[in-house]
Each structure stands twice: as structure tokens, then as C-alpha cells.
């Protein structure tokens, strides 16, 4: 089914369809292509930042392997969306029950964001991978391979994706720009690139949103969109805290976290960046950054996001009073 | 006619097989052993709090052994004549259809010494003569009237079901009923049920019929609140540390996760400035220990957990507090629930978008403000098959 929408979300419309279309990651592409050509791939673990081509390469692999019937032989799951490992297992089981259609003797399961699984869930996943290894190959993707259990890593070939270079992203943007009849000034591209932190998917999203206003992409226009799409500022929470109003600070914090669907770790990241701009004594900033680091560590360990953030806010209250 | 929607979920999803009974492995083994060695002992008493699976266990074990169940429950009149009339002959006859029979005397604590005079005596008499195993269930078997019964039967205790097990059960039921309920709410129901699966399922079913969960949180919470209020007051007001503080929260009989929520909600109502920071520091350390207990199953850490919640929080101040603070019920979980309700459309849009673009719903939710601009285009809305409500949501200006 070669459906090509004239109107589509650009991240899909311009998603590379062949290995040759991909930008960056040359070494990885070469090796994955060789594996795919042999028609017998091992389990793969794709590690790397968002928007660097992990899902894209997985899709290319299945299309190369299965051709027209790729949809029947491919199951895409997202670990951060599925309700627990049992759901994942059940879906894998249902999918793996029937034989692959076509010449390739296995099906492919793509488990995105596998690092969202707990250790226990990963143990279960490992067993599932073993049980179905004769009929299925797994492609796992994650941001940090360190969060994936060693036994899983040792059963898979690991590929580490690098953040795309500016020139690589430029190549993709040029193609889109030409196709959609846009004019993008070099400055505007710089703004697009920088506000997306090298995440190719975000660059393209930002470009499409900007282009929905005008085909002449200028830095100002991009900036307008960026500020429109900017999540509420965490600074307002800190302002409340520094002024000594804990109740409102935490109210606002919960509000932002819920409305913007951001995690505790995103909040900590924003706070850590904000601390240096606060109107307080530098020594206090040092102390607060230490506290922020400790809170982030605890969150990574699996503590209660909200309690840890509240404790952190409480130390901002102290700082606001010039205390300890 | 029975409307399938009106069957209580606790009946609809009653465990049918042994594998369906969760969190009672030890009891199951003991019952199996009892049946294997029958008639060494004529009867077992399944003993434990409500909703832990006593009756289900009896039925499941009968199912597994291909036995017929002959049941007497609390609604039967239990006088001497009635019991001997029902149980007496049955104990001597073989089952017509099944391999064997099991006699189930459900909720034996319901036998009144006055109204059902002689009932217990007859039961004992029958135990002696029965050629089939007898299973008795009871909430409280330590009452005096059961002295003799306890000697004749083996007592098997069922413990309160762990809240995580209840969570799993609730999630399974939600899935079967096709109800999306947020994890936070499931957790709070599971915690609130205090090990009672039936209560948890009842609450869940009630919730599924309501638009707002507030009523649920009101339901049957009064006693527990009383005791958490007094405990909070004791810790928050007193500056002197005493041994009572060490176990004060343990003794509220409230699940620990709920205690955390209460303390978290109320610290800022009592403390300001340095005291506030210290109190939250103690609470956050208690939370760290809670996590360690959970991950490492190292239960001894509970000592520190309770220490940090009690004495450590009390010690943040130098002098006793006077005056009245009106403590509030935890509101965080409710707020999360309400927000989830409000953003249901946002979520359904993101699910469609995420599936189309091979990303997670969570990522789509995070990028929503940008998506909102991109999805102004009508053709894209059509392609993603957004419905009218979702389109209305996209067109709505952001209220903040």
C-alpha cells in the first residue's frame, strides 16, 4: 500500500524511505544495511537521543525485509504508553502466534522507548524475547543503553546513534523547503536548529508550524512560533517560592506538570537552568544547585516526583529569605 | 431478566480457578494438603478479613478437584434442625454429577448462639460423621463460642491482600470492562481497600458510574480520618520527642502511601520558612526509604521511614505549637484525576497523532502546543480522522 498523502504531517511525509535517504549515522546505516540484505537480522538495540533516526531505520528495515506485506509482519509498541509488561507480553504473544507471511521466517517487533521499562519488566521482556526468538526479532530503542539490562544488551546487537550534525539536518530541511516551496533564510535555519537542540523531528515540526503561517521563513517568525509553543515557565513557580508563598508555588507546580504533561525530571532540568538567573546571592545558588542535583538523583532512583520537588521548593523558600 | 451490567463486579470477576486467586499462595497450599490428607482432618477453617478470597478459594479448590459444593451461608437459618436436615444426609451421599463433594459452611461467625441455638453443636457433630471434606469460612474465629470448633478443624489464615496485587486485579477488570481509569485513582482505590478485594471492586464499579470521583473519596473514610487527624496533630504540635511518635503513624492503620499524602498536604499549613524546609526534608528522606524498601524488599528500612515521618518532622520546631490548625484531605490525587478528565480530548488527539507518526503518546502530549499549530490544517485533521469534539478542542483558545 503505497499511500502518499499530499497533506501529511511532514515528519511522516519526509521520513526517509530508504537507507540512502537517511542523513548522518553513516557507519550504522552501512552495517544495518548489510544485516538486512542477509535477510536474517539479530535482535537490535538502537540507543541514542530523540530525533536521530532510530524509528526511521526500524521502519526501513521492515520495508526492505517484507516489501509490500510489511504491515502484517511488523508490530510497533511503545513501552512508555503500554500499561505494564503484561500488556506488552500479551500483544507480543498474540502477534507471534501466527507465522510470518512471505519468505522471511520471522516477524519484527519494534519496542520503542524500552528504557521506560522497570528492571522487573525488562527481566520479563528478556524471557519473552527468548521464548519467541524462533519466530520474532526484536528491535528495541532507548535513549540511554545504560538503562537496559545487561542480559538484554548481550542478546542484541547495539547501535549507538549520535546527535545529528547541523549540516545533516540542513540537508533534510533543504529537501522539504524545495518541495513545499518555502524560502528559509540562513538565520531562520539557525533559530530552527537551535531551538530544537538537534532533534530532527522537532526541527521539522517547528518548520511545519512556522510554514503554516507563511512560506517565507524568517528568524522572527520562527521565534514567534517557538514562544507560542513554549511550555509555561517554571520560573513563576520559583518566584512564588522565593517570595515565601509555598502553597501557591506548589499549586502552580502541579498545575504546570499536569497541563503540559511534563515529568518531574523535566521540571528539575528547567529549575537547574533557571537557578543561575535568580536574583539571589551566588553562594545560595551553589547550595540550591546541590539540592537540585540531589533531587534529580532521587527522581532517577524512582522516588515520588512531587514530594521531592516540594522539598526542593521548600529550600527555595529559605533562599528567598536569604537563609541557609 | 438479569442485566449483565448490573452484576456486581466482585461477583462477575470472582476467581474461578486456583490460578485466579492472588496473593494467598500459602493458604492455597495448605488447603490442597488438607484435601490430599483427608480424612486425617475433617475440616478446615479459612480465616481472614473480608474480601481476601475465602469463599473464592473454597469454590476454586472444588473446581480443581471436580467436586460439587454444598453451601450453607449466613442467610440460611442455622438452627439445629435446619443444619442436620441439609448437611446430615448430604454427608453420606455421593455426588450425582461430580467426582466428589465439598461441604462449605460460609461465614460461620454469622451463627448466633441465641437465635441459631444448637447450630454450632450440630456443626461439630456433622464434622465427626461427614465423609466429605468440610470447609468453613470465618472473619473472626477467636470468639469463645468457636472454642470446640477450633480444636476439630485446621485453621488456615488468609492475609490481607497486598495493595499491589489488588492494583493488578483492578487493572485487569478495567481492561475487561474497557474502562480507562488513571493509575493514580487505581492506586488510591487499592490502598483504600486495605486488603479487601471485594471492597476495591465495589469502589471501582461505583467510580465507573460516576462523573466525579469525589463521592468515592467521601465514602467510608470517616474513622480513618479521625485517627490521622489526631496523629498529625500530635506530631505537628509537639516539640518534645517521645516514643509514642515512633509508631504513631504505624498505628493509624492507614496504608503508608496515604499517610505520606496527608503529611505532604498539611506540612505547609503548619510550618513556614526553616521549619517548612526541614519538615519537607524529613518527608523527602522518608520517601527515599520508602523507595528503597520497595525496590530492595528490605523491610527493616521501615524503622527509618516511620522515624522520619514522626520524630524527625516533630523536631523541626523548638517549642510546642498551640492553636488549632484545620488539616486538609490530600488533594493531589484528585487534582490529577480531574485534570486527566479535562484533558481527555487532548489525549485522544495525541493517541491518533502518535500512532500515525510512530512516537509515544507521551511525547506527543509534550509537543502538544506545537502540534496544535500544525493541526490547524483541515486536511491533516481529516487524515488523522479527528472527531468533532477533538476538532473543537483544537480550536478552543488556551485558557490559563
Q: What share of the residues of chain B does DSSP label as strand, in percent?
A: 5-15%
Order of secondary-structure elements of chain A: HHEHEHEHEHEHEHHEHHHHHH
Q: Structural class of the helix and strand makeup of chain A?
A: alpha/beta
CATH arch. level architecture of the largest domain in chain B: 3-Layer(aba) Sandwich
The radius of gyration of chain B is 27 Å
Compute the number of helices of chain A. 15
Which descriptor suits the 3D outline of chain B? flat
Q: Name the average pLDDT of chain B.
A: 81
Mean pLDDT of chain A: 89
Largest sheet of chain A: 5 strands, parallel
CATH architecture of the largest domain in chain A: 3-Layer(aba) Sandwich
Secondary-structure map with pairings?
The complex is a heterodimer of chains A (324) and B (400).
Chain A: H1 10-13, H2 26-37, E1 43-47, H3 54-66, E2 74-78, H4 84-97, E3 107-112, H5 119-131, E4 136-142, H6 150-154, E5 156-160, H7 166-180, E6 183-184, H8 186-195, H9 200-211, E7 216-217, H10 219-228, H11 235-242, H12 246-259, H13 264-275, H14 282-301, H15 305-320
Parallel strand pairs in A: 1-4, 1-5, 2-3, 3-4, 6-7
Chain B: H1 9-12, H2 25-37, E1 43-47, H3 54-64, E2 67-72, H4 80-90, E3 100-105, H5 119-129, E4 134-138, H6 147-152, E5 154-157, H7 163-177, H8 183-192, H9 197-208, H10 214-218, H11 222-237, H12 243-247, H13 256-270, H14 273-296, H15 302-314, H16 332-342, H17 344-357, H18 361-366, H19 368-374, H20 378-383, H21 388-395
Parallel strand pairs in B: 1-4, 1-5, 2-3, 3-4
Write up what this structure looks like.
The complex is a heterodimer of chains A (324) and B (400). By secondary structure, chain A is α/β, with parallel strands linked by helices. Chain A contains 15 helices and seven strands. A five-stranded parallel sheet of chain B has the order 2-3-4-1-5. In chain B, helix 5 links the parallel strand 3 and strand 4. The radius of gyration of chain B is 27 Å and the shape is flat. At the A-B interface, helix 9, helix 12, helix 14 and helix 15 of A face helix 13, helix 14, helix 16, helix 17 and helix 18 of B.
Amino acid at each position: 500500500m503505497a499511500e502518499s498523502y499530499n497533506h501529511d504531517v511532514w515528519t511522516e511525509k519526509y521520513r526517509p524511505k530508504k537507507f540512502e535517504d537517511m542523513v548522518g549515522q553513516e557507519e550504522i546505516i552501512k552495517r544495518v544495511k548489510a544485516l538486512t540484505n542477509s535477510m536474517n537480522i539479530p535482535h537490535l538495540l538502537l540507543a541514542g537521543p530523540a530525533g536521530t533516526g532510530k524509528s526511521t531505520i526500524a521502519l526501513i528495515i521492515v520495508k526492505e525485509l517484507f516489501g509490500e506485506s510489511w504491515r502484517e509482519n511488523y508490530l510497533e509498541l511503545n513501552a512508555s504508553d503500554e500499561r505494564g509488561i503484561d500488556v506488552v507480553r500479551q500483544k507480543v504473544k498474540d502477534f507471534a502466534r501466527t507465522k510470518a507471511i512471505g519468505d522471511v521466517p520471522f516477524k519484527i517487533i519494534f519496542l520503542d522507548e524500552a528504557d521506560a521499562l522497570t528492571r522487573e519488566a525488562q527481566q520479563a521482556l528478556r524471557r519473552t524475547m527468548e521464548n519467541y526468538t524462533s519466530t520474532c526479532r526484536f528491535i528495541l530503542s532507548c535513549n540511554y543503553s545504560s538503562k537496559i539490562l545487561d542480559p538484554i544488551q548481550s542478546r542484541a546487537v547495539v547501535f549507538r546513534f549520535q546527535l545529528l550534525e547541523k549540516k545533516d539536518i540542513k540537508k533534510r530541511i533543504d529537501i522539504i523547503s524545495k518541495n513545499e516551496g518555502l524560502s528559509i533564510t540562513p538565520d531562520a535555519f539557525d533559530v530552527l536548529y537551535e531551538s530544537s537542540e538537534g532533534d530532527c523531528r522537532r526541527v521539522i515540526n517547528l518548520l511545519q508550524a512556522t510554514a503554516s503561517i507563511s512560506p517565507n521563513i524568517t528568524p522572527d517568525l520562527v521565534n514567534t512560533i517557538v514562544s507560542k509553543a513554549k511550555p509555561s515557565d517554571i520560573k513563576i513557580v520559583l518566584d512564588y517560592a522565593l517570595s515565601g508563598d509555598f502553597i501557591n508555588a506548589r499549586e502552580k507546580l502541579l498545575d504546570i506538570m499536569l497541563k503540559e504533561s511534563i515529568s518531574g525530571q523535566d521540571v528539575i532540568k528547567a529549575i537547574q537552568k533557571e537557578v543561575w538567573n535568580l536574583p539571589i546571592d551566588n553562594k545560595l545558588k551553589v547550595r540550591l544547585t546541590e539540592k537540585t542535583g540531589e533531587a534529580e538523583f532521587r527522581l532517577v532512583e524512582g522516588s515520588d516526583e512531587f514530594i521531592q520537588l516540594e522539598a526542593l521548593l521548600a529550600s527555595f523558600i529559605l533562599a528567598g529569605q536569604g537563609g541557609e | 431478566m438479569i442485566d449483565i451490567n448490573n452484576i456486581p463486579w466482585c461477583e462477575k470477576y470472582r476467581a474461578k480457578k486456583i490460578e485466579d486467586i492472588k496473593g494467598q499462595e500459602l493458604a492455597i497450599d495448605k488447603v490442597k494438603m488438607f484435601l490430599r490428607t483427608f480424612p486425617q482432618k475433617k475440616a478446615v477453617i479459612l480465616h481472614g478479613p473480608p474480601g481476601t478470597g475465602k469463599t473464592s478459594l473454597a469454590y476454586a479448590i472444588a473446581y480443581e478437584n471436580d467436586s460439587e459444593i454444598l453451601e450453607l451461608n449466613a442467610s440460611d437459618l442455622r438452627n439445629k434442625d435446619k443444619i442436620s436436615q441439609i448437611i446430615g444426609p448430604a454427608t453420606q451421599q455421593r455426588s450425582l454429577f461430580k467426582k466428589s463433594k465439598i461441604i462449605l459452611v460460609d461465614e460461620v461467625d454469622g451463627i448466633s448462639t441465641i437465635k441459631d441455638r444448637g447450630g454450632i453443636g450440630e456443626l461439630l457433630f456433622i464434622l465427626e460423621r461427614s465423609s466429605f471434606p468440610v470447609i468453613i469460612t470465618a472473619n473472626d474465629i477467636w470468639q469463645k463460642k468457636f472454642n470446640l470448633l477450633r480444636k476439630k478443624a485446621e485453621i488456615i489464615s488468609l492475609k490481607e491482600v497486598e495493595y499491589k496485587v489488588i492494583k493488578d486485579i483492578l487493572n485487569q477488570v478495567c481492561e475487561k470492562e474497557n474502562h480507562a481509569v488513571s493509575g493514580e485513582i487505581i492506586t488510591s482505590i487499592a490502598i483504600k481497600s486495605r486488603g479487601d478485594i471485594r471492597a476495591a471492586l465495589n469502589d471501582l464499579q461505583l467510580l465507573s458510574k460516576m462523573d466525579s470521583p469525589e463521592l468515592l473519596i467521601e465514602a467510608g473514610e470517616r474513622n480513618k480520618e479521625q485517627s490521622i487527624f489526631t496523629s498529625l496533630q500530635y506530631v505537628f504540635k509537639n516539640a518534645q520527642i517521645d516514643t509514642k511518635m515512633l509508631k504513631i503513624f504505624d498505628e493509624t492503620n492507614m496504608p503508608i502511601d496515604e499517610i505520606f499524602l496527608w503529611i505532604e498536604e498539611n506540612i505547609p499549613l503548619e510550618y513556614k520558612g526553616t521549619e517548612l524546609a526541614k519538615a519537607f526534608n524529613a518527608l523527602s528522606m522518608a520517601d527515599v526509604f520508602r523507595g528503597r524498601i520497595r525496590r530492595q524488599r528490605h523491610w527493616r528500612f521501615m524503622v527509618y521511614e516511620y522515624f522520619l515521618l514522626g520524630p524527625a518532622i516533630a523536631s523541626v520546631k523548638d517549642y510546642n505549637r498551640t492553636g488549632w490548625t484545620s488539616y486538609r484531605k490530600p488533594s493531589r490525587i484528585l487534582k490529577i484525576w480531574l485534570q486527566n478528565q479535562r484533558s481527555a480530548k487532548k489525549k485522544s488527539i495525541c493517541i491518533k497523532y502518535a500512532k500515525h507518526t510512530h512516537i509515544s503518546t507521551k511525547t506527543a502530549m509534550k509537543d502538544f502546543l506545537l502540534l496544535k499549530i500544525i493541526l490547524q490544517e483541515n486536511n491533516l485533521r481529516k487524515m488523522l480522522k479527528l472527531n468533532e469534539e477533538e476538532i473543537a478542542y483544537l480550536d478552543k483558545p488556551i485558557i490559563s
